[in-house]
Amino acid sequence: MSYKPKKKLTIEEFLKPQAWFKNLFKKNVHLIKGIQKKANKRWEKPLIRCNVK
């Protein structure tokens, strides 16, 4: 892994500034949680492969 960000953004922090996703926060909180869970799993895989913590 050539780059590891200092602060990992949550899905909510990433999507909030984008007005396109405004309705997602009002009614579909469960979707955001599911997306965050998948993103966390996908993030862990390369870290494990590269022995980065």
Low-confidence stretches: none
Structural class: mainly alpha
Strand content: under 5%
- N→C terminal distance: 11 Å
**Structural Rg:** 13 Å
Please tell me the overall pLDDT: 85
The helix/strand order is HHH
General shape: elongated
How would you describe this structure to a colleague?
The chain is mainly α and 53 residues long. It is 60% helix and 0% strand. The protein contains three helices and no strands. It is elongated, with a radius of gyration of 13 Å. The mean pLDDT is 85.
Descriptors:
mainly alpha, 3 helices, 53 residues, 0% strand
Layout of helices and strands:
Blueprint: H1 11-15, H2 22-27, H3 29-49
Question: Quick recap of the structure?
Answer:
This protein is mainly α. The chain contains 3 helices and no strands.
